[in-house]
Write a structure and sequence with these properties.
Order of helices and strands: HEEEEEHEEEHEEEHHHH
Distance between the termini: 29 Å
Largest sheet: 5 strands, antiparallel
CATH topology of the largest domain: FAD/NAD(P)-binding domain
Number of helices: 7
Radius of gyration: 21 Å
Structural class: alpha+beta
Number of domains: 3
CATH superfamily of the largest domain: FAD/NAD(P)-binding domain
Strand content: 15-25%
Amino acid sequence: MARGALFDPDVAMIDPAKLAWGLADAAESLGVRIHENTRALSIDRSGNGIRVKTGYGTIDAAKVLLATSASKSLRRKLRHWIVPVWDYVIMTEPLTSAQLADIGWSGREGLADSGNRFHYFRLTADNRILFGGWDAHYFYGSDTDPRRTQHPEEFALLAEHLLQMFPSLEGIRATHAWGGSIDTCSRFSAFWDLGMNGRVASVAGFTGLGVGASHFGARTALDLLDGKDTERTRLKMVRTKPLPFPPEPLKSIGINITRAAFARADRNEGRRGLWLKGMDALGLGFDS
């Protein structure tokens, strides 16, 4: 049960897919060529430039910006800073006008709760509820196998939580359910790297916040590639990196201890135990 709420009238809601399609259209109108479903295999120096090997051939460029999200980074050294975690969502059948009126969601606001393990929920254009979040699963060895997109136990848990939030929707069906991996780092926000003689910039670690932050991340990475001294490049979060993750099995152990500590804090009205206080002191997590 929600005990209170905060309304922010300055937050804008967007459809991430439509945003990506619109940006692609704008880029192509300027002469940019986009090659989807082209796997990049390696990146190396080539003379005064950079060569990227793909499954269809090689690409030579003066400079490269890498934004590989939860995929394994082409730059080996960056793999110590990133782990993929899996997030899951369900989507209901369209709500009737009576159901919408009953739950009082008349303003079509984007909603989220404030727990360490938080939910987010949105209304689609045809009045379905997209409901996701809560657990962020890490699978041993940074597994990103596509089979992980389906997690029936997690979908059932989300359905239970949805009905706890909106009891009057008892009996509503979920028509879609899926999961995807997101890139996270130990400080739960993006970080940047400039390497290979300043010719390759990377930005990663968004931790699910990439829809809003990716524009800032890209502009900052381009500033770094151009060697510009800007307000963005002078930021401490741009000039520093998060703590790297240890190798397995310590990585998996540490991540799962943290997940358990988040759950314990949520059960105790947000009171943070020794593990989370230690993370705070080291500049780890969302409170970094």
